[in-house]
Amino acid sequence: MSSRTGIWLQFCGAAILCGGFVAPIALGFWETLLPAFGILPAIGADGFSLKAWTALAALPGVWTSLRLTVFTGLLSTLLSLGLAVAFCASMHGRVGAWRAERVLSPQLAAPHAAMAIGIAFLIAPSGWLARLFSPWATTWGVPPAITTVHDPAGLSLVLGLVVKEVPFLLLVIIAALNQVSARQQLAAGRALGYGHGVIWIKIIFPQVYRQIRLPVYAVLAFALSVVDMAIILGPSNPPVLSVAAMRWFMAADVDLLLPAAAASILQIAVVVAGISGWWLGEKLVAAAGRAMIRRGGRGLESEPLIRFATVCVLALLAVGFAAILSLIMWSFTWRWSFPDAMPSSFTTSIWVRSASGWLRALANTAGLGFGSTLLSLLLAILWLEGEDRSGRRLLPGAPVILYLPLLLPQVGFLYGLQVTFLRAGIDGSLAAVLWGHTLFVFPYVMLALSDPWRALDRRYVRTAAALGASPLRTLFRLKLPLLLRPLLAAAAIGFAVSAAQYLPTLFLGAGRIATLTTEAVTLSSGGDRRIIGVYAALQALVPLLVYGIAFSLPGMIYAGRRELNGVTV
Q: Which residues form the ABC transmembrane type-1 domain (predicted)?
């Protein structure tokens, strides 16, 4: 009976996977592809043509947008992965996974838009960094006439992406190290006279990279198609391709819909080409690595470079924490004249005056976050319990399918979904936005929960069955209590992902569902820094509060059970 129930649960999981992920993405892509090739009857375009592509090529700045997209995406991903690997190579064995998880949590919890606004507050000509060094080191009595945010080269966007993605890659690498006998290999290499970092990069990292390949691809896809961070930090005229496509979709001129659809398809092609190029680069690096290993060498001369990269990572982490702190400071600032290093007066009146706006946005953010996270947890438990009862995995390619919403540019299929929802009469509804958030939350929840679930000692389940417990009783009285800590961690990650969603809220909500993210991104283009600080601080602190609850709750519930209270490494 249990096996039959497991097969039924797996059938439900397959239906959810196909109906909730593959079909909507395919439908959204199709509804975007048609206008890209001249078919959009709503504006009188009824026949196949390449006018959308010729119109796109003629738009001013489109080739610069394409170049900026490729440059910022590839450079930020290369820097993020290189710095994360160098940091792990230097610090592995010196910092426990439990401590690293807690240090990285604030930056992982902070949505991309909030982090970008905080970085803009730091590096702007009148930002906190300029104030700290003025006038005693810079002689600046007024903000300098230099471009540090929205710079034409996109370097500020690269900085923001690296600050946000390095902690994510560090956590992914730390999780993958559990599958590698790193300590023994490090000890053997050191006994042979090799440097600590070189052993890690030559021997351990190739084993780890096989397990983190898909997360790295997801980071690359995000960097090549990011919208919210690009609006806040990236070049503005012309912007990167994803921002340009979004603006053309939102423009009042309906004639821009066709080139906007073409730009979305081009964005997908850029991401596919970027991942393909990265895959080819992996082969070249692997071949060069094998040749380097055969050539020998202790690699001690590379240790200073690895230590320098470690210092860079620590500096990036400091920038991330300072960015979050700057949001909080600006939200309580009454007067902060340049070049004062600190505000001359503080107030809570900004929070009070803007309460009607941020309370509504906070309620929507919390509702969507908890709703999409709860749905994702239920679906993940159904999926994994089906695997347990049937004794087999759902589909060989399920991990890749799960990553589809993360690997494909959002702008490439969300417009098509908006069109579909509009025809169905649910465009702009809270339910549509909730589903859109779940589409992106579920992959993260599933990936965070699947390994701990599958690592649970099956002897517990067999013992419960021998004592007469039903599979359902075993699930609720044994599995879920034992997995409380990973369940809460997955929930915290899911909530943070939901709180960070910008384009799904904007497109599927038709601009009628205000969240902290949509309001913060809208305000970031201009206005009072104190108001921006209120929304961005809330956007950063609410997911952090959820993270704090997720990490502390097991310790309170299982205070007398050392292996369950979340304290052990």
A: 62-277, 362-553
